[in-house]
């Protein structure tokens, strides 16, 4: 089923079935294969995801020692999960584990280790039942991990501390880690709502199981989240390795400023340096139509050039009508290459972790518009911790919408190259760009950490019998 390298070492990787999880898992697998020439990797995806990856040409770009294997489509389709992500999460919990375990049992050679997405509730148990070391991959910020790990210490939603005053408090007042000072109680309040009761029950199960894993990999950069990573090292009973940014930076090597064979490349090439605001709210974000319209009209009012990725055809047509000759609306693009284009000077983003890391890697300041989950914490990191952007969520009206006028003003400020605050954001973004790129270069923090992980794996230091208590 999978071809192992000459030494016979074989790692199986199982990502959570979503673009924001599969993409970083594939990057980690590429890096792991590059770090250890004696290792073969089998990446397990659903049949639907195999077809999606094949349509994007991904299998052809994978190293020879990284292969894809499939399980049946036992979960809802990727195309509809945004409408019921809670139901999708529950289906992954209830239905995906069994076919993955059957695959593990018939893979040859037998896996020496399994790298599973942390959100796969059954992942650690599946490995433990077979005596296979389990390495958990966390594809979100370490800061969010630290907050979730201590969810039992979160303040109550109701009662004397459940009002507006409590919502403004920093989480470090309840959890003894100074690094959580930029995270507000309001950022995790939504996770305590009735609608989130079942997902959070699963998350609690995830973190309970995680304590039995042999190690945890973080798709982050030590220099960006040193406080959180040090804090996690204090509380986890297993080794941790920071291997990020787990983004497709390989595509930039040798040709970072050029985007070839794309219809939009000529438009970008024709724009002045740092004049274009790149706009994308990710592949799986549910945003009210009224908010989407406010963004579009706010951009129009600002008169700033923009490049908007909108996957819905009806939305694309409407946005293009609004934008006129100041903007370009496309259904898809190579995001990291676009962010790295000289004409792009800002990023209006939902602040998913992959998008946030790509903005950092490209050195582009961010106008954050988070919707939920880790995005709220990511936006805090961007605006308050790293100081490379503006958090528009802070300026919502009572109905939860950021107004057209507010958006126009924020876009204008972010993209004004003569504005002192904007220049400072750009200076900081350039600093973090250097830090994130240095981390993956030879001798950098992530480079060393990944090789340490590969070495520990090869030497059997992560074996179940050696780490289980």
From TrEMBL:
The keyword Transferase applies. It is an enzyme of class 2 (transferase). Pfam families: UDPGT. Its EC number is 2.4.1.-. InterPro entries: UDP_glucos_trans (IPR002213), UDP_glycos_trans_CS (IPR035595). It comes from the Eukaryota. Belongs to the UDP-glycosyltransferase family. This is Glycosyltransferase. The lineage of its organism: Eukaryota, Viridiplantae, Streptophyta, Embryophyta, Tracheophyta.
